[in-house]
Design goal:
The complex is a heterotrimer of chains A (about 325), B (about 300) and C (about 550).
Chain A lengths: L1 H19 L3 H5 L6 H10 L6 H13 L13 H36 L4 H15 L2 H15 L12 E3 L2 E3 L4 H34 L2 H8 L4 H39 L4 H10 L3 H29 L1 H4 L8
Antiparallel strand pairs in A: 1-2
Chain B lengths: L1 H13 L1 H8 L1 H18 L1 H4 L40 H37 L1 H16 L2 H15 L2 H36 L2 H9 L3 H38 L10 H9 L8 H28 L5
Helix pairs in contact in B: 3-5, 3-12, 5-6, 5-8, 5-10, 5-11, 5-12, 6-8, 7-8, 8-10, 10-11, 10-12, 11-12
Chain C lengths: L1 E13 L4 E13 L3 E6 L5 H8 L8 E9 L2 E2 L15 E4 L3 H4 L6 H12 L4 H14 L18 H12 L6 E5 L7 H18 L2 E6 L2 H7 L2 E6 L2 E6 L1 H6 L4 H9 L40 E12 L13 E12 L3 E5 L6 H8 L7 E6 L2 E2 L5 H10 E4 L13 H12 L5 H14 L16 H13 L5 E5 L7 H18 L2 E6 L2 H7 L2 E6 L2 E7 H6 L4 H9 L6
Parallel strand pairs in C: 3-8, 3-9, 6-7, 7-8, 13-18, 13-19, 16-17, 17-18
Antiparallel strand pairs in C: 1-2, 1-4, 4-5, 9-10, 11-12, 11-14, 14-15, 19-20
The chains are: A mainly alpha (about 325), B mainly alpha (about 300), C alpha/beta (about 550).
Chain lengths: ~325, ~300, ~550
Amino acid sequence: MQSVGVMLCVALLSFSLFNFVGDPINNMVGEETSTEERAELRETLGLNDPIHIQFGRFVVNAAQFNFGKSYQLRRPVSELIAERMPATLELVIASSILALGFGVFLGVYTGINRTGVLSNIILFVSLAGVSLPTFVIGILFIYIFAVILGVLPSFGRGEVVQIGFWSTGLLTASGLKALILPSLTLSLFQMTYIIRLVRAEIMEILQTDYIKFARARGISNRSIYFGHALRNSLIPVVTIAGINIGTLVAFSIITETVFQWPGMGFLFIQAVKFVDIPIMSAYLVFIALVFVAINFIVDILYFLIDPRLRTKSENRDG
Amino acid sequence: MADRYAGLIHRIRDSDIFHSFIHSPTALISSCLLVVILLTSFLCEFVAPHDPFTPASLSLMDAFTPPFWAEDGSMVFLFGTDGQGRDLLSAILYGTRISLIVGFSAILFSVIFGVSLGLTAGYFGGRYETVIMRLADVQLTIPSILMALLVDGVVRGIISRELHDEVAIYVLIFAIGISEWPQFARVARGATLVEKNKDYISAARIIGLPNRLIMFKHILPNILRPILVIGTIGLALAILAESTLSFLGVGVPPTTPSLGTLIRLGNDFLFSGEWWISFFPSFFLVILAFSINLLGDWMRDTLNPKIN
Amino acid sequence: MDFLEITNLNISYPTRRLLVAAVQDVSFSVRKGEILGLVGESGSGKSTIGRAILGLLDEPGKIEGGTIQLENHDLADPATEISSFRGKRIGLIFQDPQTSLNPVMTIGEQLIETIQTHLQLDANEARKRAVALLDDVGIINADARFNDYPHQFSGGMRQRVVIALALCADPDILIADEPTTALDVSIQSQILALLQKLKADRNLAVILITHDMAVISEVADRVVVLKDGRIVEMGAPAAVLGTPSQTYTKSLVSSVPPTDRRIDRFPIMGAEQNHAADHNLKILNRWQLQKNTGASLVRVEALSKSFSGEGFMRIGTNEPVHAVRNVSFEIREGESFGLVGESGSGKSTIAKMIVRLIEPTSGAIFFEQDDITTLDGPALLAFRRKIQMVFQDPYSSLNGRMKIKNIIAEPILHHNARLERADIDHYVDDLLAAVDLPASSKERYPHEFSGGQRQRISIARALATQPKLLVCDEPTSALDVSIQAQILNLLKDLQEKLGLTILFISHDLPVVRQMCDRIAVLKDGAVCEIAAAEQLFASPEHSYSQHLLNSMPKFQP
């Protein structure tokens, strides 16, 4: 299906990065290496083989999570990523729960109560939220809670517990404390975005004929909001949720930088600054994998939610 | 000639949009704010009290001066100075200009690129449309920050460091622009599909007008409204994107700092008490984004025929 | 006994500029066991009244005064708990069954929800009642289809479901707002029959809101005629429609295309209308009139069009849709040829192929002996000059951003780039005069004109290149009946004076009878019958034609 196509595209991009952006050999060895040694290295690495063979090798390697060694840190990329992945994932999951939970709830509330005072306050705050870049929010939080109030840590992950290959910060008090500010920061921008989107959806649904007809049949407001409107808004909300989780993964780069959270995003920024191609291309493939997975799940959810996708529609009058 | 403009002004004055503009406090306030910001930043050479970028005019004696209302502050440096004696207010004005230039150009690029692709895709349909929309969809799943970072990283790898500093601004504009085009293409294509099915387009085709003419003379003016709304909000996003990238250290070169760069530089001093160095640039950045968003919000509400 | 009594009802919509009085001083009553028809053109306030009864006016509408008396409750009084009447005492159904049902809930769920809102029944009993309702409205296999979704039903079936939903709690009054306007003629007659049966079985008081005079004539027991928010006339249909006393009613009635005979022109009454053929036809000076020989102008041979399955469905629907199957007919110079059929008959598709908006899958179309499907370049341009089209929707057939003069001048300029500006302006003036619009119109924008005026502009634009064939695709279906009469008269006059050949597409049989010399009846993309108009209506040969003519509501006051 198209997911495979997307992955291949991304792999191609990654591969091109690897091979064509700068000379891999030059990046890997020091200046003292002689020309013969470089040629030898080239041969060993198979860089003289035709392009499609190199690409094939790349894909095979990638499938086994082998991306070579980081230019800068001189350690295998897969190791680096495995080390940092839990940190990023815990952060992203915590933020998603916050963003989606509050976002959808407040979005529905302001969609239904279009003119209430509380609604307007929420909307105003959400507008401010969309105007505040994530890093500003992070800095603000650090300043208030870490510098002035001193209640929450301003960097790092706190103590972590190692379970198998996964290091979690959720089981320690300091780990949880350290998670609060970064996840709040990360979720705020997205939360406000979700509020506005959900609100727009709800308002549109409330204008439809079937809602008017339901009213005309005497269905109570409660049933209309929670039975009809909410059910119909599930489809766009699922879309929004899907995109949102993806965005969170990307924006985690910023949050990790501000809070020095040892995740993949932080790794990636360093890689961009130092043109550390293996990490960049590995990150690219990983991100693509995440997005493809999310899209896939969203598609399945669509299928389950929207009956029109499950059954044929009947158009001819008998 | 004169009465053509008089007629236009009359139409504008009578129109519903103008009416709600005048009567909407948010629209008025935000546009006034924006005009002020635009003027002061683009005329910064005349408006700014100091020149923060000529090393000769800086004096380390002035470094770390707090804002004028604090104990050691002075009216000379209204918002204080940074670690090298640069006047923060002036730096902010210059920085705002950079942010605006990058943000605006990026969005302009995005709009032109995205709308052209979306319009033609929607009009011609077929394989061409499928390919473009797939591309847009795939790219939409990649958040723009990531996209911009990737593009920037790739370019860095390709060209040398000195050259990169010179063209960094263009690279940044391109990176941000490329990251935002899918949403314009999507909206343009959707709106084109709606217009394409309307009878006046069929009439134009029956007259025998060439496709080029139909697209740009008939369809384009009628799809501008949603594009305008998204463009305004996109402008805010582009400005925030630029400042984020500069904050992360991969945006504009340090020689022409934007608001994001200033915030990053000021961040180091946050813990040692010189809070104003990163506070004021942040504040102005937020005000800028906020006004644009307010305006965009008002536009979306007035120009939307569905939600009354 | 008068069950619902409305006295001096006043409803207004405060807009930015002025207070629009939607309904003024309206008084009438409805009895149980009768169908009261509320008839009027757009802006008459009929729909507004229907919604006001249930307190469902769209913002910012509000009831300014008057009473709506139901037994001893005044529904217009803001103190009354209007929500307790909705669905329970009064049911309301809308025009479009497709958008009236929630697409993600099964019809069973929607029925049970409504039933349980009003009656204290447990799930089992509610379901039984729901199935009984579905049976009553004529849904076959009601029990099996209980868990189906709305999109799995056809349009007519959906409207039956909608009616069932409105009757869940056994209301005494049913308000039906244009219940059959969105349906095909054959389905329409079924739904009307259903409404009559339900009225009789349940002793309902039915308020039927419609613009269709023929429908009123067929099913209404009493009629109220509205214009601009006021009652013009009311009484039994035979009286009001047969021997109207008011001028407006008279002109309304005379605008209705008769179903039993062909008339030359629709008689237009009233001060504002000029004498019949009094169009300022200076356009004739520019027109190269040719003698119409009766030779074949358009010949369609074995025309077919299939669309490959598309749409957002993921399952199953990749079967091709055969919109047009092997259609052949001929249009002669100077005649008016009609294509008649219900939705899905392919009539619009055929028209679009003749003007080369879409390409046929197979077959040939000859125009003046040339196969137009193979034309290209300058030959295509020459062809485009000779055929023009008038569309159904007056609101989307003009580019809202262009001035009228540019809209009309565009085809002229495209074919004659070298004309002088002043000359073009005069030409545009003449065209506007030919459709009875003042020359000042050319400086204005489409949104400043009404639907009927916009259609006139469309016709002016179509005439700009002096076409030989004018294709009219449902040109009056979206217009009020009185405006329709004017436009149809205009088309007849223009055809006569300018020697046009007209291809007239419509689903409206009475209109077609008035406008066309010969008619082709289409069903599911194939031709059923081609005959001269009078012969078709007098003695149709094909069973489908007979069925269509029988289903057609007849205006027989």
